Amino acid sequence: MPIDPNIAIGAELPVQEFTWTSSDVQLYHLGIGAGARPLDARELRYLTDGNPQVLPTFATVVANIHATEAPKVSFPGVEIDLAKVVHGSQEVTVHRPIPAEGSARTTTRISEVWDKGKAAVIVQESTTTDLDGNPLWTARSSIFARGEGGFGGERGPSESVALPDRAPDFETSVPILPQQALLYRMCGDRNPLHSDPEFASAAGFPAPILHGLCTYGMVCKAAVDVALESDATRVKGYRARFAGVVYPGESLRVRIWEDAGRLLISATVPDRDDSPALADVVLTLA
Fold first, then answer.
1. Which biological process, per GO, is one annotated for this protein (predicted)?
2. From the candidates 24, 29, 115, 194, which is the catalytic residue?
């Protein structure tokens, strides 16, 4: 059986220790579209040599940013073909601004396994500290494994964030380069679903798709730029559910509502009748 929840739930994954530099931060920011306004001083804060500001979404890639091989979905009680897996949701909470360089340690456990019938959802929770044990960020993420449900587990909760019934306070369009996925994969996610047309076709897509975490980072950056004056230190937390595929060469329509210490965000693809890209997007202010 590919999934055994009795083994998986509560299982701890190997501890990760890693180091990053300001060049890694710059590469990540370029991977999510930073630098499109090269004469804008606020835009260049993401790419400053030595001490760039760091978006909290950098936390989602930093542990594996130097990886050069495709990931494997192989955990205690979980063994799944990579072609069946897409990202389900992602949440990051930073306990202080992420430094432009440093070393850290991440501990991760599988917290939940849900049986959605035709699919399974595996939820991981992680805590990251510096090497002295001071907290840096915590994260929660889920993966959606098509065709892996039906093992008799609980279906799990279904939650959604209602958007205000009024015009957004901010709205912006985010262009996606045709080579965006090829650039973003340099941040450590070498899943061929995002680069190999034949692999993407075998997985049921007409072309390689953009990494969900690339969309996640691009939308966060857009919100920081238009609603927070490009100041990444004002972000305490950021979460989203991956609601649909995005293809390189498209664009994102990002609408933002201010809501009592947080931003509620909608991200859609206008090129395809505003089909959803991210849903239940909440940015919590520091």
1. fatty acid beta-oxidation
2. 194
CATH number of 5-285: 3.10.129.10
| Residues constituting the chain | 286
- Return the SS3 of 3: strand
DSSP characters for 130-141?
ETTS-EEEEEEE
Give catalytic status of residue 29 as yes or no.
no
Give tens-digit pLDDT for 220-268: 999 999 999 999 999 999 999 999 999 999 999 999 999 999 999 999 9
At 286 the pLDDT is: 95
pLDDT of amino acid 130: 97
- Any idea what DSSP says for residue 12? B
Which single residue is written with the structure tokens 């049921």?
204
Structure tokens of 164?
Answer: 């205000």
The catalytically annotated residue of 24, 115, 189, 280 is 189
**Residue 49 CB partners (closer than 8 Å, separation 6+):** 22, 26
C-alpha R_g of the chain: 18
Convert the pLDDT of each residue in 63-76 to its tens digit: 999 988 877 888 88
